Amino acid sequence: MEKKQLIYETAKTIFSEKGFKDTSIQTITKEAGIAVGTFYLYYSSKEQLFMEIFKDENTKLKRSFLGSLDSKQSPQAIIRKMLLVNQEGIQSNPILREWYLSEDFRKIERAYRDEHAIDSLDFLYDTFLTLVQRWQTEGKMRADIDSRLIMKVFEAIINIDTHKDEIGMEYFPALLDTITDLVLKGLTDCSA
After folding, report:
1. pLDDT in tens, 107-122
2. For the range 6-15, what are the long-range contacts, defined as Cβ-Cβ under 8 Å and sequence gap of 24 or more?
3. Where is mean pLDDT largest: 27-31, 110-114, 163-167?
4. Residue pLDDT, tens place only, 81-92
5. What would the DSSP string read from start to end of 53-115?
6. Model-level pTM?
7. Which among 116, 149, 117, 119 has a CA at the least distance from the CA of 132?
8. How far is CA 54 from the centre of its chain?
């Protein structure tokens, strides 16, 4: 296995087991059986490596969703499925879960986007933005709300998951379903 791939796979395993904060470059290189200097030949920092792993895990999740997408379904059915797939992905994947549970990662994401001259790490955004705009044109979703704002509403629903401890686990699943229902009804009531 090439050294860069070895570093990547080793780090992915350790990040999944110990989390980002409890993983050091020294731990990764020791487990991979390489020198610390070798790490820096491929990655500028632990944060850059984590972002590469996160990006790949996020892409896998989004691709699996897109592969099962039936664009003929109603906006409500598609959005509910998207939110469910995202929530299940966060719960089942330690890399994705850690990302959504820590405010520290917003800074890491901004630095990564700046370093790589990209606007977003949400690989589903463009696909869904196009779908929302199509629904607006077809009268299936309110056209009086900017499509990018609608995307932010969906992002807010996804991020509610990161506050479930504050909300209280006894309320959380019902609250998420209720908010999702209310938002979808509000967005698809084109008489407003």
Report:
1. 666 666 666 655 555 5
2. 6/32, 6/34, 7/32, 7/34, 7/38, 7/39, 7/42, 7/43, 7/49, 8/49, 8/52, 8/53, 11/46, 11/49, 11/50, 11/53, 12/53, 12/95, 15/50, 15/53, 15/94, 15/95, 15/98
3. 27-31
4. 887 887 788 788
5. HHHHHHHHHHHHHHHH--TTS-HHHHHHHHHHHHHHHHHH-HHHHHHHH-THHHHHHHHHHHH
6. 0.72
7. 149
8. 8
